[in-house]
Amino acid sequence: MQKNSRMGNTDVVRLLVKAGADVNAKDTWGTTPLMLTVLGKSRRAAQCLLELGANINARNVYGQTALMQCVEEDAGMHSFAVMLINADASLKLRDYQGMNVLHYAASAGLDNICRVLMECSEPDVITQVNKFGDSPATEAHLRNRTTTAQLFQLKAEGKELSPREFIPDANRRDLDTPTASMDDDDSDDGSET
């Protein structure tokens, strides 16, 4: 189940579940098949697992969820993160260091994912501190994520800016469509090359 989830083999995953495989099976590190779809950048496999009853808020031995792992990956995972949020992934859960998903996105400097998370989060999630006393905004400052830190400041001031007005060109990667390495339901358009 783990390998096929990571590789995005949805037909095999469905057959395994039909034969009795546990859609929420964990390995030694507590990694679930859904978490492996993040590593394999397979949205299609993630959607399949969610349809089959995967626990979207399952945690590994570090307390991380699939959404936390997704937002720490890279800006190309924006649409994957939005899919998980729309599937009711919790934004309030914290890992064992007290970090929520917004801490992860701020640390990675993923401005537009931070913006989406702030729009979807309750105010207390935006200002939550981890066990070291750092808020997501502090995480951005500590890692020299200047535009991300500025986004938190603007949010604190009650200002709303669209992503393209706020984000400098060099940081717009997370606005783009999914990269070719991440599968998508409409990636096979039937054309021959």
Word description of this protein:
It is a single chain. The chain is 48% helix and 0% strand. It is elongated, with a radius of gyration of 17 Å. It is built from twelve helices and no strands.
Features of this protein?
elongated; about 190 residues; Serine Threonine Protein Phosphatase 5, Tetratricopeptide repeat; 12 helices
Furnish the topology, listing elements before pairings.
Blueprint: H1 2-7, H2 10-18, H3 33-39, H4 43-51, H5 66-73, H6 78-86, H7 101-108, H8 111-120, H9 123-127, H10 136-142, H11 146-156, H12 163-166
How far apart the termini lie comes to 32 Å
Number of strands: 0
According to CATH, the fold-level topology is Serine Threonine Protein Phosphatase 5, Tetratricopeptide repeat
Identify the quaternary structure here: single chain
Strand percentage, roughly? under 5%
Unreliably modeled segments: 164-182, 184-193
Q: Helices and strands: which structural class?
A: mainly alpha
Taken from the alpha-carbon principal axes, the silhouette is: elongated
> How does the major sheet shape up?
none
Using only C-alpha atoms, the radius of gyration works out to 17 Å
Name of the CATH class: Mainly Alpha
Order of helices and strands: HHHHHHHHHHHH
Contiguous helical run count:
12
CATH arch. level architecture:
Alpha Horseshoe
What is the CATH superfamily?
Answer: Ankyrin repeat-containing domain
The helical percent reads: 40-55%
- Whole-number count of domains: 1
Average pLDDT confidence is 82
Pfam families: Ank_2 (PF12796)
Keywords: ANK repeat, Repeat
